[in-house]
Design brief:
This protein has a seven-stranded parallel sheet, with helices on both faces. It has a four-stranded antiparallel sheet with strand order 2-3-1-4, covered by helices on one side. It has a four-stranded antiparallel sheet with strand order 16-17-20-19, with no helix packed on it. By secondary structure, the chain is of the alpha/beta class.
Length: 685
Amino acid sequence: MRRVLICAAVVAVTWAAPPGMRTPLAQTPAAAAPNTVARVIVKFRTNSALLRKQTLSITSQQTQQAAALGQRIGIALEAGRGLSDRSHVVIGRGLSSKQLAARLAAESDVEYAVADERKHIVAVPNDSLYASGPAVTATNGGPAVGQWYLKPPPPAGSASAAWGSTAPAAINAEQAWDITTGSASVVVAVLDTGIRFDHSDLQGGNVLPGYDMVSEDSAGVFTSANDSDGRDADASDPGDFVTAAEAGPLGCSQTNSSWHGTQTLGLIGAATNNGVGMASVGRTVRVMPVRVLGKCGGYDSDIQAGILWAAGIHVPNVPDNTTPARVINMSLGGDVACTQGYIDAIGQANAAGAVVVASAGNSTGHPVSSPASCPGAIAVAALRHVGDKVGFSDIGPQIAIAAPGGNCVNTAAGAACLYPIVTTTNKGTINPVAGPPGASYTDSFDASLGTSFSAPLVAGTAALMLSVNPSLTPAQVKAKLQATARPFPTTGGTAGTQTCVAPAAGVDQLECYCTTSTCGAGMLDAHAAVLSVSGVQASIALQTTTPTAGQAVSLASASTLTAGQSIASYDWTILNAGTTGATITSAANADSVVVSPAAAGSFVIQLTTTDNNGFVSTTTLSVAVIAPPAPPAPAPSAVTPSGGGGALGVGWLLLLLAAVLSLALVSARERAALSAATARPGRTD
């Protein structure tokens, strides 16, 4: 007896989304003293029910709005002065202004709520050269404008003269210092000629020992190093002078010592507000000299080793750097295109969290020099005091931003330079003059001019940004510097000044009006840059690995905060659904959100975060959505058995019928044969 068994297999498929990373809501800070008065500026959303038109006066409406908000959060609130038809001050008691702002910002119909704080007169450093330089004589002194490049620029359209010694290109470090004067946890490495540690403005806890990376010219020869030894822990500058006898063999020109590293490092981290000398951008950040240049410059290998070591990356036969730099300044360059060695070194430094800043070069408007032209470097061009490109600065599409580089205006022989960059130096012409007698500052006759001095202003600003928000990545620092830059002026330069054009090798381009394709995003604004990172930094994490039409897409806040801050509110919005028809299908005011796209394409989602200090940050993310996979085509029924238990096809029925008939014929023959055998005589079984 034969039996045919047809079995169907059932496969169950389950899917579970992995748990997402969430940015937790921080706990409410401890309550303030009962007699504390909180003042908060509240702006309502345009669709807020509290803005319904009434016959009451504005004052009465605002009183009712404050009372309604108070009922919601359980605190009696009073209305203060109005700012617009949707914003006014509210006053509460028993908690701080920041605490009240955080509570009110969480209300769905409040666009923002920020503490109504006091502002004060900006504290100007008391360094003697900040306001103005010494009286100008026939051979020294000045400039009369002092450290003009650190001061607030005049308002757009105002004459510089009306604002004292300020200039349109000034970076407004003064107001940045109102936010932070720097953190000792942020280290800026200055790759240069080393420094004079005996300079009175470069002593104290903010100057680290650093390292000397200048190696020998050949086996046992240390002419370029000028210190009779190779790599060691002594980053002091012995002088980079080149004598007439050395010029030929070394392949460069006879020159006096530049004390270049002392000048660039002083701009970033000279002691400030100590009553003498100059002020620096970074003020209280720590600075670390890394000597990579000597007589006739420096080898790429030494510079690249300096980049790696400064960032905390191991260099063979050199002790590891125990104080890795968050910012690396390189006021150096050459006219050879960026090589793979620099690309690799800068890439490793960026990956280690170091911001790399480099000067554009001083070959009079030619293409950007290397390593400024390398990926991952923030290339800096130089501006005149009025904001147009100074003649010596190189330009090109690799430039990220521009900053003051010094200019003289009066170019007559022996005349005082009117707008130099004031910084630390040494009085020695060849060898250094040791101790306090050698400590000096550049002035209108020994002027510091060049993109070498633009880059440190950007590096110092980056250090201030990292001081208030150490979680920033190098890419975020660059993006914020560019996003907050002020527009280049188109007037104010020398008569006949033209607009800058794309650079060409060997073609000089002197003073010109900058464009974003030649001089970067704009003019450095230290205050705006530091302010932009002083609160929560909104960021979105896509949690669904492969967003697919018809399936839920999960996103979460990956926003970062500085110490002592918390996120008060989230606001998710679909800015552009595109062809996806995407809609938010979860709460839009939580730390994560679910979006449902109906079709393939891409959608853009926006996250706005507000922290407990009232700082608002917004970011967007474009999400690509794929179409769901097509269902598999059914296999031919005559070949593949059905697994679903449905009705048999015609083909299967015919085959089954043939099999039954065949079995029937076989059975008939077997019965006939059996009958014949039993009828045959003499047969026994």
